[in-house]
């Protein structure tokens, strides 16, 4: 999983990227976090940078056909690194997905990935990354271009066809849900829905109203760090 550790401290912050990304998407916030915590970044099995010695993908279409497979990967990483006090920061599908697409939208996404992944990826970047930040759009586009199209298709089906809403009421760890003011993938209503359903854990929703798109760690990293300073107390 290409895990890399920086910083030091009694607490560890584990940063998990989402669909189409890799650990490089966290590079704007890692230096500041590493001043206060041990920070771990890694690549999920679907990332274009997650490959075996022979160059093949680490993605297992059977194991990773559900979120349980990814959860087991994460648990294995935490155990391998012997981490004891962990704060998990997950982006998008790494946090669990319950987004704003209609069924017809999802069918179109799956169809477009299957017919021409690279054309779809170019269009997807324009939808999910704030257009006023071209360098960030380029960075995510490069991550998507490294992703195996077959893996992207299988993962998209896992992400968009899964329904994990029943898990929310079982969550016992307080969570902070951070969103931008305008995100076509995950509207603000989703964050408040999740907060309402997590009845066993006092959770909060923080909205960076000045930011747009699905990638605050790229396009609004200073505002994101401001929220993390309050949540994590540094």
TrEMBL record:
Protein name in the entry: AB hydrolase-1 domain-containing protein
SUPFAM superfamilies recorded: alpha/beta-Hydrolases
Domain AB hydrolase-1: 12-93
Family matches, as InterPro entries: AB_hydrolase_1, AB_hydrolase_fold
Family to which the UniProt record says this protein belongs: Belongs to the AB hydrolase superfamily.
Listed PANTHER family: ESTERASE-RELATED
Organism (species): Cannabis sativa (Hemp)
């Amino acid at each position: 999983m290409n895990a890399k550790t920086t910083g030091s401290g009694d607490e560890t912050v584990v940063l998990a990227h989402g669909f189409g990304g890799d650990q490089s998407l966290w590079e704007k916030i890692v230096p500041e976090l590493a001043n206060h915590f041990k920070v771990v970044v890694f690549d999920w099995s679907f990332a274009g940078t997650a490959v075996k010695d022979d160059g093949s993908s680490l993605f297992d279409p059977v194991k990773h056909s559900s979120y349980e497979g990814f959860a087991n990967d994460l648990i294995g990483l935490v155990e391998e690194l012997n981490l004891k006090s962990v704060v998990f920061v997950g982006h998008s599908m790494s946090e669990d997905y319950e987004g704003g697409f209609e069924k017809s939208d999802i069918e179109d996404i799956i169809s477009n990935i299957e017919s021409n992944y690279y054309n779809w990826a170019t269009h997807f970047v324009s939808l999910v990354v704030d257009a006023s930040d071209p360098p960030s759009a380029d960075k995510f586009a490069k991550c998507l271009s490294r992703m195996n199209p077959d893996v992207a298709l299988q993962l998209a089906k896992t992400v968009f066809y899964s329904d994990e809403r029943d898990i929310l009421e079982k969550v016992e760890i307080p969570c902070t849900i951070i969103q931008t003011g305008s995100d076509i993938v995950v509207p603000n209503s989703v964050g408040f829905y999740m907060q309402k359903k997590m009845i066993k854990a006092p959770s909060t929703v923080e909205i960076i109203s000045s930011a747009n798109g699905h990638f605050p760690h790229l396009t609004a990293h200073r505002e994101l760090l401001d929220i993390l300073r309050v949540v994590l107390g540094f």
